Amino acid sequence: MNSYSIFGTALHRLAILCYVVFALFPLFWLLKVSVTPNDLLYSEGVRMWPSRMSFEHFRFVLVHSAFPVFFRNSMIVAGATAVIVTLLASLSGYALSRFTFRGKYWLVALMLLTQMFPLVMLVAPIFKMLSPLGLTNSLTGLVVVYTAFNIPFATFLMQSFFDGIPKELEEAAKIDGATQFMAFRQIILPLTLPGIAATLGFVFTAAWSELLFALMLISGNSAATFPVGLLTFVSKFSVDFGQMMAAGVLALIPACLFFLFIQRYLVQGLTAGAVKG
Amino acid sequence: MASIDIRNVRKNFGIVSVLHGVDLSIKNGEFVVLVGPSGCGKSTLLRMIAGLEEVTEGEIRIDGKRVNERAPKDRDIAMVFQSYALYPHMNVAENMSYGLRIRKAAREKITAAVSNAARKLELQPLLARRPKALSGGQRQRVAMGRAIVRQPKAFLFDEPLSNLDARLREQMRAEIKKLHRDLGATSIYVTHDQIEAMTLADRIVAMHEGVVQQVGSPLELYDRPANLFVAGFIGSPAMNFLSARYEVSGETAGARLPDGTLIALSSAYQLEEGAAVTLGIRPEHVEMSPASEGSLRATVDLIEPTGFGIILHLGLHGLPFNVFTLDRAALTAGPTVTVAFPPQHLHLFDETGKRALESSLQKGKG
Questions:
Q1: Which of B231, B230, B226, B261 is closest to B247 using CA atoms?
Q2: What is the fold, at CATH topology level, of the domain defined by A65-273?
């Protein structure tokens, strides 16, 4: 290795390090504030770590606030949305990838079109539609709305994964004696696990952190999701940063667990060896 | 094992017609090779037999039963793909047994069939491996193993050797031939490689632009090509073509080249005097000789030694013309050589490109 490539590598690593620090610093700050006791929050100035740590904010959030309810609601909404969207998107993505049918072009165009509107524009009409159906102030309503908004993108995502799987694999399965659906379930689906994991993760995080519709469609604590719940730490005269950050740290846990669980499927290269590469 | 009958089969993709009425009967146990340049419709025909493409018009029968409307799974055929198409998430044994497993065969039967096929193809040490841990040749073997495990009515091969390097291709070609000899299974093999076609086939079906050009044994296609396409496609280096006019004078028939040279023919043909014809001669049949009547002078453009023989690229009145010879003296040939065409090796094609029909000399005169 010559000096130029050592220098180049060092520069490259440095750039990555800068980016990682930049991306992770807010998370670090979240953690730092959450373990800083209230009396030190404003008195110590800007410090990287408080002189004294305390978990009182966590205790308060878990025991005395409605946070466990928000947490449970968010789990239900994000989990259900992720599962439903992935299921539907894998079917529709497969259809778009493999079949030619009448109106396919217009269907794709329509799905793209739905992605072009700012969500704010749609809040009022959606509220109007959901209200007579009794779907406001309910988790089901949120799941319906999130599912509708996430399906187009998830479909395109899944389609690209299906496109990456050679058509011959299905044809071989069909000749081996499989029906179209068996070929899909036994051959194609196992190979799409990375795509399914990516879609699940994407939709889960999108639903987990969605605020606008949760705020507009839900009133009161019983059906509030976690992002709405965070706002309860903002009162008219003060913001309880310690508790808010503690709640934030807790909210990170399921997302982290979720990605830990799916990351082994996210690893690419599962299809290697199917056809000559 | 089964016979396959193809009757007036046509295929359109939208407004594009790729097969214009193909008729073909394949006997039980026969090895038939569909050969032709890319885009000639050979793969489409194979995929229609497999059930992967719909038949626009006509009929396909396997073992006498119409299969047009049957799904691939109900046709009891096996197919080996160019890309192998192994299931990446299954190991070799699972890949080979997939067809039997979804047909819910007994476990002992599956184990026996897989180990039997693995023994034939020398795959026993690889049974637990995933496809990505195999070399190209091994993947190809697994793909064949997957086909033979089920003992289907017929084997379809879609350019199975195209992804292998030259050495491995030769080796696998011999293995396929051996396998066919051992199993005696009806096989249809698609390739664009005329050497594969020649070496493997009981019968070759030469196709061009969606039309069958000639059906026959390899040597029939080599010795008596039915038209210019087959003549040019079969054989390597390819046959030389010269335009000429047909002439009969007295006892002899000949072809007059544009420069006035008369090339003697071995028999007369059912052609008009003065008809435009194409004269064909294979590079290996051209004789390099001292100047004599009917011989031609040609300039040497390029000399290609192949080790086994020598290919001379000549210019004959400015047109490219190839000669293949085993005589190493040709290595130092040039700048001009004299070539002669033995009459028994000449092929004559009429204006439409069809092989001219021979007749006796007396008839030809009239």
A1: B261
A2: MetI-like fold (1.10.3720)
